[in-house]
Write the structure tokens for this entry.
Amino acid sequence: MSEVMIYGAAGYTGRLCAEEFVRVGLQPILCGRQEAVRAVAERLGLKSAVFDLNDPGETERRLKGVRLLLNLSGQFLTTQKLLIEACLATGAHYVDLAGEVEDTSHAFTFDNQARRANIMIMPGAGFNVAPSDIVAGLAKKKLPDANELVIALATDGGVS
């Protein structure tokens, strides 16, 4: 069994991550709520599973043997809680791309449980969070009297 699972692998970011994982030699299990995840997995020669998060027992069963869960399934306030609880039960580390303050702050409410379970919970690992925070910090150092900051991002592939 793979040690890495991508939940939300049928979405734009999920497909890109799955392709990159394969490019560097990793074989993640691609998962999500939509049957489309099977086509992505088949194209990349990976295992897949389609399951809804509303059944905690099923989610935990799917996470058996997984060391790292990458949650790319939007509406993070919903998916995050359910997947973090499954990670706590199974000992899998958790990473997501949540970029909103409420989503990221919510993940911190699991800190004590994560420490007891000896797992890492890392919300906000997405591109939009870290680079923009770094740019904002650098701008504040260079322009301490500024009172407004506008950050624009350009991509080759568009946005999801």
Remarks:
- The chain has a mean pLDDT of 90.
- The longest helix spans residues 76-90.
- The helical segments are 12-23, 36-44, 56-63, 76-90, 101-108, 111-117, 130-142.
